[in-house]
Amino acid sequence: MKLTWQNKQEILRIIAGFTEQDNDRVSAEVERVVESNKSNPAENAMTIFLAKHYDFDLVEVAQDDVSAQDMAQTFVWDYVTKIVQWDMAVGIYRRRHGNQEAA
Predict the structure, then answer these.
(1) Does any domain span residue 6?
(2) Which residues of 71-92 are buried (b: 16+ CB within 10 A; e: fewer)?
(3) Which residues span the domain enclosing 45?
(4) What tens-digit pLDDT sequence spans the chain (103 residues)?
(5) pTM surpassing 0.85?
(6) Which of 7, 10, 61, 80 is the most exposed place for a label (fewest CB within 10 A)?
């Protein structure tokens, strides 16, 4: 998907103009995506990354810390939220601009 700077600016304005109903739809979709995973993908990626630099047992102990789990959960939630917002906004953008080859 190729977007111009102007396309991106318009899409950001669309996101900024989301209504409460739009934000509720975003939250519901984020919850569906995040809750469908049995494990946290951020924690999985960090385990692989950190195990290259630290003893695996140490990594496991650190990840048992609730604050580390909360941090990973927040990251995933926030990241998926951005993707869902952009997905919705690009859909709106496309509908506004019809068959133009945008996004």
Answers:
(1) no
(2) ebeeebeeebbeebbbebbbeb
(3) 19-96
(4) 688 999 999 999 999 999 999 999 999 999 999 999 888 899 889 889 999 999 988 888 888 888 888 999 999 999 999 999 999 999 999 999 875 654 4
(5) no
(6) 61
